[in-house]
Structures are given as C-alpha cells and as structure tokens.
Amino acid sequence: MSDEQDSNLEVEYVAEQEAEANEAVNADNPDGAVADAAAALGDTSEADADSEYRRRLREFTRELKKQPGQWYIIQTYASYENKVKTNLDMRAQTLEVEEYIHEVVVPIEQVVEMKDGKKKIVKRKLLPGYVLVRMELNDRAWSVVRDTPGVTSFVGNEGNATVVRHRDVSKFLMPKTAPTEEGQQAQANSEGEMVIAMPEEQEAPKFAHDFQVGDAVTILSGALASVSASISEIDPSTGKIQALVSIFGRETPVELTPDQIEKIN
C-alpha cells in the first residue's frame, strides 16, 4: 500500500472517530447539534460556549466516577428535601451505615429577584421533590434511606432503585461557572444544600409580559438547560414564572425568570 493510501485511510479513520464522538455527545445533549450547526454558519460564540460546557462536564464526570458508590435519587414530600437530608445524615451515623451512605445532596442555585423594588438573592432547588444520594445499595442502607421520615420512594421500581448515570448527576452538581483562580467549586451552605450557581453581578430580573400561561418554552440556563417546559403561572409583580418540567417521569414545577427561557415557535 502506498504512502498516499495510508494517509487517506488515516484521515478517514480520524473523521469516523470524530463523527462517532459527536453522535455520542448529541445523544446526551440534542441541542449540541444546534450549536454545531450554528458554528458551521459562522455563529461561533454559542458553539464555543457549548464546547466549553461539554469539556467541563466530561472532566467533572470523570471525577465523580472516582468516588465510591453509585448515585440514586429519592423522592420526598414537597418542601421536605432539606429535612430529608438532615434526617438521613443523622440516621446513617446513628445506625452505623456511614460506610455505605457516602453523600446526600440537595442541589440549589442562587438568583437575583426584584421584590418591593429591591434586588434580593433567593434560592431555587434544582430538583424540587428529590434528593441525590451516593451510596452502596444493600439491604441495610436501602432500609435506612427508605424509612427516613419524609422519603416516599427511590426513583425506579419499588425495591429496585435505578442507578443514575454519572453524566446526568454531573449536570446537577457541576458549578454553573468554571472554577476561579482560587479553585472555588460548588459549596454547601449552612443547611447542607449544594450551591451550584451564584448570581452574576450584572444579572437583573426582567418583566414577564412577553410570556403567557400555557406557552411552551425552552430553558436556556442552569442544570435544566435545553429542557422543554410549559408555563403554568406568571407573577407580573415580581416577574417570577412557574413552569412544569418532566423530571424522572413526573411533572415538576420549577421557578424561572424571563431571561432563562425562550418560546418554542
């Protein structure tokens, strides 16, 4: 075989590998294909941002995989997420299953909202009604979690909890912005919630008059970026928008601001 043929085969092989990698990424993030198309048309800013996000997501996912245990999701009573975390942490210690239950997380983001004419930082749970748990699933650990006050069930078939992919967990735990020079990562606050996103200095709430109840929208930022939602409630005085999102097969209300969504035409 000639050197020219060898070179052609090598180019074809590299192209095939890149195509397979892109297909795998787009399978997990369909909107990645949109960013790639935008780059081809010359709009590289969105493509660059998406590429950086995916790079950070891959790195964060690799770090998660090094940790012991698997990730599971437990469903809680409404507004009981923090109580469940506190109760489960205490029960794991008291019942001596800390070696199996490694981490309990309530991921949140902090955003700026306008209230009474003033800006105020508020917290939003990224998974309302759910708590993430990294654990070794055995009879003892399962029983401790399942019998924790406020817990209704594991996500999955009863008695057969479903393992959550590390990549999916990363989307909820990875900080919204890249680490600073000081290496800051997501931090736990005094209530044990994992703070994933902090408000940007120039971020300002916008009025919601462009949207109506029933509008189908796409979420543009945060852990639910690229997810479709349906607006269920609008508070014109604060600009708050409540939308319904399908999370783990259940329709879940989430609070959003107008700058976080766009209409689906």
TrEMBL record:
Residues 22-44 have a biased composition (Low complexity). Keywords: Transcription, Transcription antitermination, Transcription regulation, Transcription termination. It comes from the Bacteria. It holds the Pfam family NusG. Residues 16-48 are annotated as: Disordered. GO terms for biological process: DNA-templated transcription elongation; DNA-templated transcription termination; regulation of DNA-templated transcription elongation; transcription antitermination. InterPro entries: NGN, NGN-like_dom, NGN_dom_sf, NusG-like, Rib_uL2_dom2, Transcrpt_antiterm_NusG, Transcrpt_antiterm_NusG_bac_CS, Translation_prot_SH3-like_sf. Residues 68-176 form the NusG-like N-terminal domain. GO terms for cellular component: cytosol. Participates in transcription elongation, termination and antitermination. Belongs to the NusG family. This is Transcription termination/antitermination protein NusG. It comes from Corynebacterium tapiri. The lineage of its organism: Bacteria, Bacillati, Actinomycetota, Actinomycetes, Mycobacteriales. The gene is nusG.
